[in-house]
Amino acid sequence: SFCFCFSLPWQCFRALCCKGPPPPRPEYDLVCIGLSGSGKTSLLSQLCSESAENIVSTTGFSIKAVPFQNAILNVKELGGADNIRKYWSRYYQGSQGVIFVLDSASSEDDLETARNELHSALQHPQLCTLPFLILANHQDKPAARSVQEV
């Protein structure tokens, strides 16, 4: 049998010459935080190629495995309601990175609350040395602040 895999010669070589499954993709554990309505659930649904219909705000936490070609991200999404945010730190252990989702079209008060929560997370002993992604969501809304304003 012949293999005409010019763009992926390593996979072709493995298929012809190596027995057994391919090596596992590395997995990384992330925590996704942000205020309610910032778009955390929608973001993860989109990354998992799930339907955007019937998205319900997370009231506690959920975990999604987000597959990429070279890795799998196990994302623990934490609800952003006032009464839940005080428990966020209980779920930080074992995290290897943080996604902070911000509603860039939110009110000044909500933006201030988000800023305080972000600063708290940045100073937390289990997160302060980890990579942070701050995602300014809802850029398509008229009231959205620019990246520089955020």
TrEMBL record:
Residues bound to GTP: G34, L35, S36, G37, S38, G39, K40, T41, G80, N137, H138, Q139, D140
Residues engaged in binding Mg(2+): T41, T58
A Pfam family that the UniProt record links to this protein: Arf
InterPro entries given in the database record: ARL15, P-loop_NTPase, Small_GTPase_ARF/SAR
Keywords, in A-Z order: GTP-binding, Magnesium, Metal-binding, Nucleotide-binding
GO MF annotation list: GTP binding; GTPase activity; metal ion binding
Family: Belongs to the small GTPase superfamily. Arf family.
Protein name per UniProt: ADP-ribosylation factor-like protein 15
Gene (name only): Arl15
